[in-house]
# Entry
Amino acid sequence: MKDRACFDCGGTRYAHTRLPHGPICTACRRRRHYHHESCPACGAVRPLAYLADELIVCASCAGATSIFACDTCGREDHPYGAKRCARCTLRERLTDLLADPTTGQIHTRLQPVFDELVESERPQSGIWWLRKNPGTGPRLLRQMARGEIQISHETFRELPSDRAHDYLRTLLTAVGVLEPFEIRIERILPWIEKVTADLPAEQAALIQRFAHWHVLRHMRTAAREDRLTQTITDASRRRIRVAIDFVAFLETCGASPATATQDLLERYQEHTGTAFSHEHAFIVWLRDTRINTRLSIPAIARLAPTVTVSDEQRWAAVDRLLHDDSLRRYVRIGGLLTLLFAQPLSRIVTMRTSQTAVTDQAVHVTFNTTAVQMPPLLDDLIRQHLQHRGKSLYASRETGWLFPGGNPGRHLSTEAIRSQLVAIGIKPYENRKATLFCLAGDIPAPVLADLIGITHSNAAAWAGLAARDWTDYIAERSR
Ligand SMILES: [Zn+2]
Ligand SMILES: [Zn+2]
Ligand SMILES: [Zn+2]
# Structure
């Protein structure tokens, strides 16, 4: 039985794989196939299993045909089954899934999906996706390939907006099969229909007009400028809710948006007990569109900068982000770029790797026009991050995002970083203001503006605030 024992581990169970120097067992074969090593003879990183001059080397160095090579493509990477690699397996399954029955070929419009998935860095993930979600994404793709459903945004609008559908839709958009779209706007459309469904027709029409011409227009502008956040989306919904609420109040008083008087508006305010704010955009809109010019609300004061986070609190937060290994690296880096350089999270998530420059001595980041040297520890975090950036799960072609997101071609969302910072008691927005305050006290406004990419007038406002407090401080001291 000696010759039936595994050459690697000595075990006799399942030692079926024959190598020139003896058999190895299934477990050892698998280990060698999945864990590529540098060949001691030629240096190539491959599965090593062949004995030559008492060294375990690669198949080429032993002059053998590799037992790890895929039957179809001959490659040893991406092991999957015993005979075929993950990429070839995925290619076969997708060819079947995406076949157009009239031609037997991959549906022409879906070819980019095929290419993206098959060429992704980890084809195993693609196989996993097909197996894990047969009833959702893959099923829709099959129906699209067969012409049973349209390849369009319309199709998705009629389906629930859940993770599986959103993923497929983002994938189709990322590879150019569908036009770009913004998921937050897509989701608000049916919501508007829903909240206006029970209103009298005339009111529903008015609210929808407001929603489409005012609220959605703002959202679309924000989306175009790549700054449409969950905060803006939530505020948009509140504006529509407030509009509905106001119209309902008027109804109980026997009035309508067109006939409402200033007196009724003031009674409405007493009734709700809240001060006028941007949420009352509907009332401003009624006036701007001349539906009702009798209504006016006091101009909502543009808030002067204020600071609510103390220096100690901010440095404690910086300290935690620098040292706490239990936090995700992208949260630490994102938080530090906000807390040290006053970068808004919405801008941090859209950063490109090309904005970083790494040498052995230093790491520089260009936020605006000037490269800024990163302080110790943060530079190491960025170095590590650049080596292990998160990858889009199923389709992971290089996109250049410093923070790639979970959906194909997208960067990480602002919310992904914000929520994790808030969870540990760090409010990014408040801290960013404290940082601006602190920087504005030290750096001349024009330099600050160039360095971190805020407008000159914003920089001046902050510098003004910093100087004012400084003046107060000196006055206090001299007393
Ligand atoms: Zn073994
Ligand atoms: Zn070799
Ligand atoms: Zn293959």
Notes: The chain has four domains: 2-57, 86-174, 183-288, 311-429. Residues 391-396 have pLDDT under 50 and may be disordered.
